[in-house]
Amino acid sequence: MEELFKKRKQDFQKLHRKYLPYVLNDHFVLVLVFLLGYVLYQYSQLLRHFPENHWPIIICLIFLTFFLLQVGSVATYLEEADRQFLLAKENQLITYIDRAGRHSFVSGTVIQSVCLALLFPIFARLGLSLTLFVLMLVLLAGLKWLIQKRKVAALMADSGLNWDASIVSEKRRKQQILKFYSLFVNVKGVSTSVKERSYLNPLLRTVEKKSGSHWLNLFARAFLRSSDYLGLYIRLTFLALLSLIFISNDYLSMALALIFDYLLLFQLLSLYHHFDYHYLSILYPEDSKQKKADLLKLLRGLSLVLLIIEIGFTGNFINAVIMTIFFGVMAYLYLPYKLKNIID
Question: What are its GO cellular component terms (predicted)?
């Protein structure tokens, strides 16, 4: 059994090695380098001109600490079929999950301690001595241990292992990682959930219901009802707005916002294959040109909504013009080009 889970872990690590080059491509690394330089500069400016009102900084540190305490999920590598084939090994599995919980605690504590150590100059400006800071790290490590014990206990039942909770927890953990990679490249194995969201039905009524626009109707419904596309649209739009609102440097805020917009529109191209495994869409006589045109029509509409939302936060007329040009290039040059490559 040890060899089985060791192999599963190695297979998942191979998946990381497969997709990480797409994430850490030259352009993205260059953006991260500039962003890191900007963050370090702002950090030095904050320490140099420390505000007299400490409460906003204290509140931010509390939220950050709470977030870091949650970092670290238990990697069990359990699969659906294990409830049948490994039922006889349940006691060994419980021992294995306890060990996985300890490993998660160690890695999570290291991340937590390093992140807080980088912020020690801020704690020092707030009046915390090095001794008290180290004591705080120890107390937080103890609190994290209790949180990790609760996470492991949630995977157990009174009579042994809670198979349902353990398998669902592992699926959720893997899906979170795959969905992160899916922001940069098409990823196999990303599952979706569908909700009706009847409160969004008025938006669907704006799409004409006629034979020539059936793909537009399908794509619009997939976008609004699938948990992936709408959630992705909201999250990346929110991040773009945060960049425009809270980063004082106009050029950097604009660059970050456009990067988030690019990632969003690039990822929405996967809508083209959303119905590939639906039997009725296979039986329906497909017109690839109409399908492509309908998807582009939807993406251009979503791009226009993005532009309208973000243009009010650009700060000046020149940035608004740059953003308008960017969305025009994306909607009428880049997206048709990428979609042609996807189809071919």
Answer: membrane
